[in-house]
Amino acid sequence: MRKRMLILLAVLVTFTVAIGLFKFLQIKAAIAAGMAWTPPPEAVTTVVASRESWPATLSPIGTVAAVHGVTVSADLPGIVESINFESGRQVRAGELLVRLDTSQERAQLAAAEAARDLAKLNSDRSEKLFEKQVISQAEFDQTNAQLKQAEAHVGEIKAIIERKQIRAPFAGTLGIRKVNLGQYLAGGDPIVPLQSMDPVYVNFTVPQQQLAELKIGAPVRVSAESLSVHPTGHITAINSEVDAATRNVQIQATFENPKNALRPGMFVDVEVSTGSSDAVVALPASSINYAPYGNSVFVVTQMKNPKGGGTYKGVEQRFVTLGAGRGDQIAVVSGVHAGDEVVTSGVFKLRNGAAVLINNKVRPSNNPAPKPEDS
Known about the structure:
- By secondary structure, the chain is an alpha+beta fold.
- The protein folds into four domains: 38-54 and 277-374, Beta Barrel (conserved putative lor/sdh protein from methanococcus maripaludis s2 fold); 61-67 and 195-276, Elongation Factor Tu (Ef-tu), domain 3 (Beta Barrel); 76-100 and 165-194, CATH 2.40.50.100; 102-163, Helix Hairpins (Orthogonal Bundle).
- The chain has helices at 2-36, 103-131, 137-163; strands at residues 42-48, 51-58, 61-66, 69-73, 78-83, 90-91, 96-100, 165-167, 172-174, 184-185, 190-195, 200-207, 219-223, 232-238, 248-255, 267-284, 296-304, 311-319, 321-326, 329-334, 341-345, 356-358.
- Strand 17 (296-304) and strand 18 form a beta hairpin.
- Helix 2 (103-131) packs antiparallel against helix 3 (137-163).
- The longest helix is centred in the N-terminal third of the chain and has 35 residues, at 2-36.
C-alpha cells in the first residue's frame, strides 16, 4: 500500500514539472517574439531644407485712421429745418448737410437792414450838411459811426444765419446720421461722422530698439481677414518722442485707398521692410512640432537597428529656434541645416527613432505668398 502511494506521488510531481516547463518555454517564446516585433513604419511627407534669403521685416499690429476725420456737429443751437444728405454717401467740400431754423434771425436781419439803410441816409445827409458847415465835425463823425455799427450788425446776423447752415468741412464719406427733422440741437450736438477715405493713415508702434531700422519712405504692407488684396504704403512720419510707459515709438504710414478697402478704426497686420535680409532655412509651417518645452522638427536619416539586422530609415528629433513667418513658410534660425530631409506632415505621430515610409505624392503647401483661397 505504501509503495503504491509513493508511485502515485512520483507520477503527480513528474506531471506538474512537465506542465510548468512547457508553460515556461511557451512564455519565454512569446517574450522573445514580442521583443523582436517592430512597429510598421509611419507614412510621412518630407522636404529637403534649403537656405533662402528673407528680407528682414517687422510685424506689428496697426490701426487705420482717416487723414481727415470729424463728427460734424451743430455750431449754434437750433431746430433742424431740413436734412440734405443720405447716410453713407460721398460729399464735396462745402456741401450743405443740415439747415437749422433761422426765422428769428431773418426777422432780426430785416430790422437790422432797415436800421442800416436809415443810418446810410443820415450819413449822406450829414455829409452834405457838413460840407455846408451847418453841423460840426463831431456830429458828422457820430453819424458815420452809427452807419458802420449798423453795417456790422447786419454782417453779424448774416454770419449767424450762415453758421446755422451746416456744411461739409472737406470732401469725404458720410457715416450714419444722428439727427431727425424737427429735432432741437444744442451747440456741439453730433450730426454725422465724416471721414476722408483716400488716402488713409495706418498707425502702429515699434520698440525703441528697432527704431534705427526704420526710415521715412520705407515700404509698408498691411493685411486683414476682410481684405482681398494687401495694400502697400510708405512711412510718412515717425514720432519725435518715445512713450515713457511702454518704450515704444509711434509710426505713421500713408496708404492710397481708392476703393475704400481700408476703413478708419480697422485693425490690420503690418509688415515693414527694414531693407536688410537674413539667410534662413525656410520650412512649411506644418513641419514644426510645437510644444511647451520647445519646438522641434523630425529629420529623416539612416538609423542603426539596436536589435541587429542592419539599418532602417528613421527620424531624429531636433529642437529648433524659429524666426518670422511668410505665407505657408516659417524661418528656422537654428537646429536644421541646408540639405536635411525634414518631415512636413505626420509629425504628431512620430517619436525619436521611429521608422518612416516617405510618400510625397501629396505634400503640404510651401508657398511664401499664398492666395486667400489657398490658405
